[in-house]
Amino acid sequence: MNDQPPEASFLTSWKFWLRSAFFLIVLVLLGLWLSARQSVATQLAQLRAAGLPTNATELNDFYAVPDGKVDSKRLWLKAVRAVASGNLLERGKDLPIIGHGSATVPDPGQDWEQYSDAETFISGVSQELELIHFAADAGGIVRFPVDFTQGLNTLLVDTQAARDVARLLQLDAYVAAHQGDRNRVLRDVLAMLALSEALQAEPCVISQLIRASVFAMAAESAGTMLSLMDWNDQQLSELQTVVESIDFREGYYRAACGERATFLDSLGQFPLGPFRNAATRDALEYFQRSVESFQNSWLETIECHRLIAQEIKEDSQTTIGRYKNIAIAMMFPASLSFAVSGARSQSRQQYLLAAICLQRHRLRHGEFPQSLQQIDVDLLPADIATSGFVDHFTGESLKYLIGDTSVKVYTVGQNRTDDGGAIEYDEDRRQQLDFGIELKITTP
After folding, report:
1. Alpha-carbon distance 261 to 253, whole Å?
2. Helices and strands in the chain, H and E counts
3. Separation CA 331–CA 325 (nearest Å)
4. Are the CB atoms for 226 and 355 separated by under 8 Å?
5. pTM, whole model, 2 decimals?
6. Are 298 and 342 in contact (CB under 8 A)?
7. CA–CA separation, 274 vs 368, rounded Å?
């Protein structure tokens, strides 16, 4: 008699189910891999069809002077390199603005301890300033020689040097102000604005941040000089026209498109293994949301990038996400700061325009209005006459504060809290609670 239990059927054995589970997992993973691969191919094809770059070679072609724009590369390149080769920063290292001198420059008519040194320095760089103004007067767009196929190692030497050009112009403006030369001051401010606009279509984040820095220097100089230079209405109108024409949104949009192409090229440097297609797909989806957000309000743009950063962080905490998102987590979070920079630049433009209009109103009526809404409508840009001056951090109107000796127009900034017009820097000039311009109440 056979006492052995009957052999289990193969279909009910643990080996069968183990093998089945294994093959099922393989099939699922293969399906996901193929799906991610197809999604990547589809998205890349759509970008190319729209004329947008998907790799460094295409980005080089994308980095061209837009149709209808003047190519001022030769002029700006000559000016920028003249400043760089002249070792001006080293020669003026003890001066304010371009060196390590006093953080602030006294108003015209007040004693400026370093004035003589600054004047001597400026007289020694007259040729460089002439080249800068020649390029600024020509207007147009600059395209510095850049090879984006270098990926993360791409050098932006000439673009970085543009900040030094702006610093030189700012120092010259203060020297000219102390000499009582209001025309030269205005020309320096307009040259800074021209340099900022020459960088308007740069297709990378660093270049747009440099552009924002140049514009900030121009806005700070203009805001300071509005109360001090006694510019007439014609001069103020010229300044207003230039400031009004500035649009940061298109530049930030192009930069986001360029960063996407650079990122896709750089993915090859990361050991993503079987997660490469999934990581590329997710990155493309994040970038698509990022790029599209720059066509919305700055409030929506900031919120979009905040959500993206949060999603990347949460996904990176999962087992698979930790490996899949290694490249995304390293390279994407800075996009939130970039969006904030755009809102700050656009708000800076708004309060500079408001300050100019306030000054023009004062010249006409002998006093500042009691509110921004009371500025004569014919002095306002057409869009602002309809919608008012906007704080792009809140979507509401800019703040306007009337004091005994001055008026302030300002944005509440990133904290979205009205700190009472605290636009002054701290002692290290590193932080402001609010951002804006203060105009002195004087008799015209």
Report:
1. 13
2. 17, 5
3. 10
4. yes
5. 0.88
6. yes
7. 66
